Amino acid sequence: MNCLGRGLWRRWRVAAVVRHTIALASEATGVPLAHRARLQLDGELARARRYQRPLTVGVVSLEADEPMGQAPHVFAAQPAFFLVGAVLRDAVRGSDLVTYDAPHDQYVILFTESTRLQTLQAARRLQALVFKRTRLGMRIGLAEFPADGLTLEDLITMACSEAAKEAK
After folding, report:
1. What pTM was estimated for this model as a whole?
2. Which CATH number does the domain housing residue 95 bear?
3. Cα separation of 103 and 14, whole Å?
4. What is the pLDDT of residues 98-142, one digit of tens each?
């Protein structure tokens, strides 16, 4: 094996360890990874479309000293990661879905049967709860179906852009 092959193998192995660590941390918090819960997320969106019910997608990113994007395997091992996942999971209604999108270092929350206004109140409550428990700030972006998008990707993109505006 030449040097290039060893370098690629090493990078692949480090990435695999990072993915495994995040998956274990996500499993410990009870918050599934977004790509594993994709069928459930799409099913809720289809149900909202079929029965013409409100649905809002929230994207939550943490304002930590060290962004998770720089070292997600380090952040996933910290107690704050477990606390934030547990707070979000416990604070939303039973019908809402909380997932963690590891590649983008954000939580994606699907608020079923909720308009944007109702979800805004819940988002402010979530920010207060997370800050009280972890002393970490949160940015939350919201996108409502069908006003802001018709697909899950559109809704997540719109919510991400709103969260970025909130940061400025």
Report:
1. 0.77
2. 3.30.70.270
3. 15
4. 988 877 878 899 999 999 999 999 999 999 998 888 888 889 999
